[in-house]
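User: Please fill in residues for this 340-position structure.
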């Protein structure tokens, strides 16, 4: 399979990570998408505690095929993590009480085709079936007119990639007592934003108080961090957001009331790269990715601290995610004043 896709550098990098595991983790196919006679695997890497209820950090890249830099960031972290965990006792200790799962490329056909959508022309982040409450922006918020237009939602049948992610959710997130998920994208604005649900509605996200607690912890530990943290609905609302769907499914189907799932989306601001190199706007890839090699390397290391922070945070969720009643009320009030 590697030789068949030898021209597909992102997938080859992922295979190289799999070949370097040396028993410290596992790599498996979550599913395979067929396109034009080729098989495109969606691979996951798992490290640490194998207990299904263990706290988890899940990293996902490449849901939009044009946004190659998301996969580059996730793969860069994965490559460094594999090398570090072989000799770093502090990292080994974290993995004795938690699980890290990495899906570097969730839309391999889209990245192969250099399109935002998958092989059927469907935008996977508009494909969950959740309908927006209100009036999303035309087209951008998701449209059902044609797969030849961007942001196409698809039909009533979930796309193969969506179904694979749904099974991954059932197997890995639904049984977990505590999960933070970071899905990495690029393209909007000059800032790097950390978005949390909802994308479909401006109503208060039930876990917003925990996001405040996490944000305060991040601010305290890294006061010079670069992220603007907010609900996605402050920027725009959309139909069909995957993490809205999976969060709502989690709340509906979780087996214990104390279970927690916090999906986050890192939206890297690509306008900053365009401002420094305006000519790249002439290329579809240039709108979403740093083109010059030194800028790509800079972005690949830019977010490593955030991911390390999240891995440590899931290992001490008692410190911030389970506040006593009085503290919870304070955090809920702060969330409403800040974002709603």
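Assistant: Residues filled in for all 340 positions:
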């Amino acid at each position: 399979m590697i030789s068949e896709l030898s021209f597909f550098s992102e997938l080859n990098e992922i295979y190289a990570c799999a070949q370097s595991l040396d028993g410290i983790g596992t790599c498996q196919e979550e599913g395979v998408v067929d396109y034009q006679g080729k098989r495109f695997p969606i691979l996951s890497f798992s490290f640490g505690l194998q207990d299904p209820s263990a706290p988890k950090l899940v990293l996902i890249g490449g849901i939009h095929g044009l946004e190659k830099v998301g996969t580059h960031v996730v793969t860069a972290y994965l490559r460094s993590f594999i090398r570090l965990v072989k000799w770093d006792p502090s990292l080994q200790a974290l993995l004795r009480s938690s699980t890290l799962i990495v899906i570097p490329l969730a839309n391999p056909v889209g990245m192969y085709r250099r399109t935002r959508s998958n092989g059927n022309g469907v935008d996977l982040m508009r494909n969950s079936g959740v309908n927006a409450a209100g009036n999303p922006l035309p087209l951008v918020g998701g449209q059902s007119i044609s797969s030849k237009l961007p942001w196409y939602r698809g039909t009533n049948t979930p796309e193969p990639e969506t179904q694979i992610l749904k099974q991954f959710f059932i197997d890995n997130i639904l049984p977990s007592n505590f999960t933070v998920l970071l899905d990495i994208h690029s393209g909007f604005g000059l800032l790097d934003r950390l978005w949390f649900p909802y994308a479909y509605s401006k109503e208060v996200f039930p876990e917003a108080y925990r996001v405040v607690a996490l944000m305060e912890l991040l601010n305290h530990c890294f006061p010079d961090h670069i992220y603007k943290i907010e609900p996605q609905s402050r920027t725009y609302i959309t139909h069909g957001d995957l993490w809205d769907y999976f969060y709502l499914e989690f709340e509906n189907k979780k087996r214990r009331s104390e279970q927690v799932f916090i999906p986050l989306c890192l939206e890297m601001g690509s306008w900053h790269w365009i401002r420094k190199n305006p000519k790249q706007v002439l290329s579809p890839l240039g709108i979403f990715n740093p083109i010059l090699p030194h800028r790509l390397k800079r972005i690949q290391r830019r977010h490593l601290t955030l991911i390390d922070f999240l891995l440590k945070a899931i290992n001490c969720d008692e410190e911030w995610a389970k506040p006593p009643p009085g503290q919870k009320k304070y955090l809920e009030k702060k969330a409403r004043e800040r974002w709603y």
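For context: Strands lie at 26-35, 38-48, 56-61, 99-103, 178-186, 192-196, 227-231, 260-268.
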